[in-house]
Amino acid sequence: MELPKRFTLCFGDGIGPEITQSVLKILEASGVPLSYDIIEVGEKLYRRGITSGIDDSSWEVLLKNRFFLKAPITTPQGGGYKSLNVTIRKTLGLFANIRPCQAYAPFVKTRHPQMDLIIIRENEEDLYAGIEYRQTPDVYQCLKLITRSGSEKIIRFAYEFARQRGRKRISCFTKDNIMKLTDGLFHQLFDSIGQEYPELQKDHYIIDIGAARLADSPERFDVIVTLNLYGDIISDIAAQIAGSVGLAGSANVGSHGSMYEAVHGSAPDIAGQNRANPSGLLMAAVFMLNDMGWSQYATLIENAWKKTIEDGIHTPDIKGEMTRKMVSTTEMTQAIIDRLGEEPQQLPTSRPSTHSQSLRDFSNLVQSSCSENRPCEINDGPIRECVGVDVFIYEPTSQAHQIAARMLPILNDLGYELVMISNRGVKVWPHGRLETHCVDHWRCRLMKKNKQNAIRLGQLLESLENHGWDIIKTENLYHYDGKPGYSLGQGQ
Ligand code: NAD
Questions:
Q1: How close is the Cα of 163 to the center of ligand 1, in Å?
Q2: How do residues 77-127 score in pLDDT, each as one tens digit?
């Protein structure tokens, strides 16, 4: 099969152009027969008023080439700009983010010389859905969206990855002691899909203690699979304790393409100073070459890079006892080029990939075995029955018992029972506590009195509004096969 010959490239912001030039020089010196198309994304487009940071012509290039080497981008804070990274990952369906975190001891200082782990992060869901609202003058909301199909996809991917790459243990990090439905689903799928992988050791950690253990003794971990936000945070911790955030590369894969980038950001504090470490983006490029099938070049570059690190040729961010010469970005680039063809003496020598499947092959395999491609199963799924509705209201001046007293007579006539009022998730009626701090945003849980009756939301809302209630939103309460598909209020 003919290997891909072209990839898409962007120079990024901050240190992006410096480290991209470095990587291009090394790729060229390696002789890999690749060319590229440059797209302009990020800060310059944001400044032109394109809030997405990317224009239509770039999408065409990305879809044509499928492989994208992306330098870090600055996302302006505030002002409604959307993160370009998140937009690209989600638009192209790059559902898996793979972040290896490896120590290069003793050449790069770390307290964890044995560290060699891979974080597989769900890339499309969670709080990164970016659905946020200011619902009242006081209350802001960000929706955490977790799907069964998305969770199944990333968990299967992680198991397949661990199996294919000969890894021994896989750990799942969630916060399902608090988020029982969303994180609970992820944990439950990790356990059930895990039965198909008996050769792998498995464990689950609540994210807080998991992160603490990871920071303290990362050697105990091998492959970690987790949700989007947790994965983002723990992969920076892991990259930092491995030696530097400047060293790690990562891949984002899906069936419509893949994007390779450094774990770090655009480092505006050192931009233009010729002191950025190009290693993170170089390792991302190595990842890409392996995935494209150009493994011999990936190996050539990785070994030259390891030899450079072993020789103590270091940028300032990894300066330590083993540094023999502290160098600029351009000097490091030249040192790597000078060592093409050499192998490290102490760090493990890289060998051309013998993996029968690239990350993108995995992603296709996983997608085809996931239930989202089997709509019949979803249609034959659980029986869904609407049993009530949570009505969220804005009420800045009343107490919970006053709200209940005003609402109860109206609901009685409409065939609903008010079973609970909560404020910021905690039950405040009936039997609330005076100590609970309440804001202007209340959730009133209404259950149907007669199960046979349909929920007539329009009628309910009209009636409440006619009685002067300021309704923010509603959320239907469903039972699935008779089990609640909603959480109880804290204290309910
Ligand atoms: P950052 O990773 O850019 O910088 C954190 C620290 O690490 C800084 O002190 C920086 O100098 C240092 N550092 C990072 N990369 C380095 C390298 N290659 N060599 C030497 N030192 C390096 O994180 P930040 O400061 O929080 O974010 C800066 C900008 O980057 C923000 O606009 C953020 O939105 C963006 N960002 C982009 C990406 C991406 O494009 N994938 C990822 C994270 C952050």
A1: 32
A2: 766 677 788 888 888 889 999 999 999 999 998 999 999 999 999 999 999
| CATH of segment(s) 384-484 | 3.30.70.1570
Q: How much distance in Å is there from the Cα of 207 to the middle of ligand 1? A: 24
Q: Is the pLDDT of residue 25 over 90?
A: yes
CB 269 near ligand 1, within 6 Å: yes
Ligand 1 atom at minimal distance to the Cα of residue 73: 40
pLDDT score, position 79: 65
Q: Specify the pLDDT at position 376.
A: 41
Contact 296, 37 (CB under 8 A): no
Q: Which atom of ligand 1 is nearest to the CA of 277?
A: 19
Domain boundaries along the sequence of the chain? 6-373, 384-484
Give the model confidence (pLDDT) of 419-436 as tens digits.
999 999 999 999 988 889
Q: How far is the CA of 20 from the centre of ligand 1 (A)?
A: 15
How confident is the model at residue 245, as a pLDDT?
Answer: 76
Q: How far is CA 147 from CA 164, 186, 378, in A?
A: 26, 9, 12
Beta-sheet strand order (sheet of 223-226): 35-38, 6-10, 67-70, 257-262, 249-254, 96-102, 116-122, 223-226, 169-174, 201-206
Say if 6-373 and 384-484 have the same CATH topology: no
264 Cβ closer than 6 Å to some ligand 1 atom: yes
Residue 281 CA: which ligand 1 atom is closest? 18
**What number does CATH give the domain 6-373?**
3.40.718.10
For ligand 1, the distance from its centroid to the CA atom of residue 248, given in whole angstroms, is: 12
- Ligand 1: residue of 266, 281, 317, 333 to mutate (most ligand atoms within 8 A of CB) is 266
Of 82, 264, 270, 282, the residue with max ligand 1 atoms within 8 A of its CB, to mutate for a pocket test, comes to: 264
Mean pLDDT over all residues of the chain? 91
- pLDDT value of residue 255: 78
Report the C-alpha gap between 476 and 390 in whole angstroms.
Answer: 6
Residue 5 predicted with pLDDT over 70: yes
Give the whole-angstrom CA distance, residue 467 versus residue 469.
Answer: 6
103: nearest Cα among 410, 331, 256, 322: 322
The DSSP string of 92-133 is: TT--EEEEEEE--TTTS--S-TT-EEEEEEE-S-BGGG--EE
- Please tell me if the CB atom of residue 20 comes closer than 6 angstroms to any atom of ligand 1: no
- Please tell me the pTM assigned to this model: 0.89
Q: Which two tokens stand for residue 387?
A: 């049993």
Q: Distance, CA 265 to ligand 1 centroid (Å)? A: 3
Helix (H, G, I), strand (E, B) or coil at 163: helix
Number of CB atoms found within 10 A of residue 224's CB: 27
Measured from the CB, is residue 75 less than 6 Å from ligand 1?
A: yes
Q: Whose CA is nearest to atom 1 of ligand 1?
A: 265
